[in-house]
């Protein structure tokens, strides 16, 4: 692997770590107690999910998605995205139904709701999981992206079509398989694919040292101005926020920092498993013991990051047959060093590392 390729992979690994921290933080504020989520959380949410879609599109091209056979690619995505979606949703279904009086989104213990929770991802027992079938449906459009990247005119036309699809939102309200989310987020996956397709000029632009503080100031001012005007336009916030995150990744690698070293290789497992400790902590701390709200938020954030990593390590060591349910390949591998960061041999080819 070339030096440039290793650097790009290190950048992306950092972005996954930053993104998952923001996702877990955003899930650490029980809204049934605090009616209004702090504005800073809304600010982060304006670009967190688009960022993960951009990362997924980037890795699709980076890992030459589909080049070894479309059938094998789709089967791999089924194992990575849909199998954990189904297994973990089923594990959580009965406990959540039995503890419905503690839940922010109570569910019915019925066959009809069970089927609905799987076919309608935004109604899933674990609300975070809407992303997985959405990304699966977007990913299987990969051959279209591979073709468009080879022809400049096709790339321009596809960008315009997907931008129009995003802005007009024609599938709004189509919740079956979250087709509304597919039409909304496919633009960002495509933009990530474009970014990874060898646009050296874009890379040089992102690496400019002055870009990060400029984008941060611009993002904050734009968000505050839109919020004051009660007009939040998602697309510019998402694009600027994503560019800001990529610029941060470049800066982080240049500085040879190791803030997120302990998260490397486990960001997808955090996404899959963080709901369980966070809900448990919320029920015990806030509902049962009635501890201060700020303490509960901090405890939910810490447990949502640390316990999934511990659980993934224990599963890989003692229950490897369950690896597929938590996004690990059978009997996952050791961590390997790439540049200034560590990547998981187990997940090095995975195209998703999120909430």
TrEMBL record:
Residues 10-312 form the Acyltransferase domain. The chain crosses the membrane at residues 12-29, 41-61, 82-103, 125-144, 151-168, 174-196, 208-225, 231-249, 270-289, 295-315. It comes from the Bacteria. One of its GO terms (molecular function) is acyltransferase activity. The keyword Ion transport does not apply. It is found in: Membrane. InterPro entries: Acyl_transf_3_dom, Nod_factor_acetyltransferase. Keywords: Acyltransferase, Membrane, Transferase, Transmembrane, Transmembrane helix. It holds the Pfam family Acyl_transf_3. Belongs to the acyltransferase 3 family. PANTHER family: MEMBRANE-BOUND ACYLTRANSFERASE YKRP-RELATED. This is Acyltransferase. It comes from Paenibacillus agricola.
